[in-house]
Amino acid sequence: MDSRTIISVAVGGFLGGITRYELGFLLGNNGVLCANLIGSFLLSFITYYFIDRKPLATWLNAGIGTGFIGAFTTFSSLITTIIKLESQDLIASIAYFLVSSLGGLTLALLGFVLARKYGRHQQND
User: Which residue ranges run through the membrane (predicted)?
Assistant: First the structure.
């Protein structure tokens, strides 16, 4: 791995973590949910549009996907929030888990579909 990739992932990770933290600060428990849902869409879209088409350098793709989005989304914060909610309200905890899981999958699918559709449209022009 070259130094550009390492630096790109480190900078992306820093920015992604700070962005998630600020979103959590502004929205509380909903900040983690929003970060994970947005991240699901972005990672899918970026993977199937930018990375497949290769308009960006490999080191930049790693910084965006692995660094920024990897730090922006977080499984540990999801689990922590679910456990915290479970101690207060079991139904809210289950709903949060379902919205996170099904919403994440739905938005990842939407990102995939839009990336493929937009990518084909660009190739036909």
Answer: 30-51, 58-82, 94-115
